[in-house]
Specification:
Layout: H1 2-11, H2 19-40, H3 44-63, H4 67-80, H5 86-108, H6 117-137, H7 143-150, H8 163-170, H9 182-200, H10 213-217, H11 220-252, H12 278-283, H13 287-305, H14 309-321, H15 325-346, H16 356-374, H17 376-380, H18 383-392, H19 396-411, H20 417-425
Helix pairs in contact: 2-3, 2-11, 3-7, 4-5, 4-6, 5-6, 6-13, 9-11, 11-16, 13-14, 14-15, 15-19, 16-19
Length: 426
């Protein structure tokens, strides 16, 4: 692997990317033709072995010295899936292993956002839990099926999918007679556009503006408006990864939907820039991880914890992301913002006296001024700098979150409208 790294860094890196970024570039553009090749294999066992071999290769290449650790955890967790109370054992073990990786990264590479072993272990954690949940709903799979699923190569660093859907792909259970590579190239085209935005646009509207003389001369309102603009630019980085992964998943066919005859079954992200509803907006961000959280945690815990499950799942998401304190402040605030949107939705008829265009504009601005700006601290990561950042904004996004939440929570304004109408019908 070292020889491959040296050759690429010395001969195939004209832009001078860091080693993790240049590996991602090669990975993203290899998984598409390799995904098409997968579809040419006629035997299910050979498809499993092909997928596993590539998954192990990319794990060893991108994950470097963590290859043995990752495989040891994977084998250990497979043993746990055969035991009583497997779900709880697997969740505990998977998050314990991930926590170790997060802590190691935080100690030895503080504030790093590298796409390497850390990100791989995050996605594998999703797959461990997916496997044990699907195993409870069926008979589970063989060790080869499990191992190949865990190391599915096209979405090794993003986009976890359920084990049952992976096996449908391996066995080609869905009618894929009308599959077309068109969606793959559309996703790849979008990925290239976002890559260009990341290279040529984002650097001009990034965090370099913070605490410069121009930033210091802005008033609070101007700073908050400017950060809304920056929040759109920051997305280039994430959408570059999302759309490249989407292209690989489209190529292998895991996203193909025979009902629509399109590759729209699993979308890594489908963020609408001008979406006015925060819930609709954020549910499409890293969408497959959010589906994992709902499928493996929310749907299982709702009976035991009721409404508190909403906040528990956000806490699980924070732990999954890491142990920087700002994650926990962000996800807690995000939960409150989404709760506000539920409040607004139930009471929407109380605001019909406002013109529709004005209601939509207020909703869009509220979304952009709260979740978009608050999320910027996650990019900063460091607690002290994040607090300094929020303070420079006079905590406006948090205030815009707290006031509606407290108002609706205390007064219950418009929250019984649906219940009243239901009683009237009866």
């Amino acid at each position: 692997m070292e020889a491959i790294d040296n050759f690429i860094m010395q001969n195939l890196n004209p832009l001078g990317f860091d080693d993790d970024k240049i590996k991602l570039v090669f990975y993203f553009y290899l998984i598409v033709p390799l995904g098409f090749t997968f579809r040419l294999i006629k035997n299910a066992t050979f498809r499993l072995l092909y997928n596993l071999a590539l998954g192990l290769f990319f794990t060893a290449w991108i994950g470097k010295g963590w290859f043995i650790f990752i495989n040891a955890v994977t084998i250990f967790i497979y043993g746990l899936t055969k035991m009583k109370n497997a779900y709880f054992l697997v969740v505990f073990a998977a998050f314990a292993a991930l926590s170790y990786v997060h802590i190691y990264r935080q100690i030895h590479d503080y504030l790093s956002c590298r796409f390497d072993f850390n990100v791989i272990q995050m996605i594998l954690t999703c797959r461990y839990v997916y496997y044990v949940v699907d195993q409870e709903n069926s008979k589970g799979g063989s060790f080869l099926q499990y191992y190949s699923f865990i190391f599915m190569f096209t979405n090794l660093i993003l986009g976890p999918v359920p084990f049952k859907d992976f096996m449908k792909l391996i066995n080609m259970e869905d009618d894929q007679a009308n599959y077309s590579p068109k969606d793959t190239f559309i996703s790849l085209g979008k990925a290239i556009i976002f890559s260009l935005g990341e290279v040529f646009i984002r650097p001009h509207i990034d965090f370099d503006w913070l605490y410069t003389e121009r930033w210091n001369n802005m008033n609070v309102f101007e700073r908050n408006l400017f950060m809304i603009v920056v929040s759109f630019g920051v997305r280039f980085r994430y959408y570059t990864a999302y759309k490249h992964t989407q292209a690989g998943m489209d190529a292998i066919g895991i996203t193909y939907n025979p009902e629509t005859r399109r590759c729209d079954k699993f979308q890594t992200a489908h963020y609408e820039m001008f979406e006015k509803n925060v819930i609709n907006n954020t549910s499409k961000w890293n969408a497959l991880v959010q589906q994992w959280l709902k499928y493996c945690f929310y749907d299982r815990l709702i009976k035991q914890f009721g409404n508190m499950t909403f906040y528990i799942v956000y806490a699980i998401s924070a732990i999954w992301h890491g142990f920087y304190l700002i994650y926990y402040l962000f996800f807690l605030t995000w939960a409150f913002i989404n709760q506000n949107m539920k409040y607004f939705y139930k009471s929407q008829r109380r605001f019909y006296f406002l013109p529709e265009w004005l209601r939509h504009f207020i909703a869009f601005f509220y979304s952009a001024a709260t979740i978009n700006v608050i999320a910027m601290a996650v990019v900063i990561l460091d607690w002290d700098n994040a607090i300094k950042f929020y303070s420079s904004l006079s905590w406006a996004p948090q205030i815009l979150t707290a006031i509606p939440f407290l108002f609706f929570y205390i007064t219950g304004y418009g929250q019984n409208y649906g219940k009243i109408k239901q009683k009237q019908k009866i």
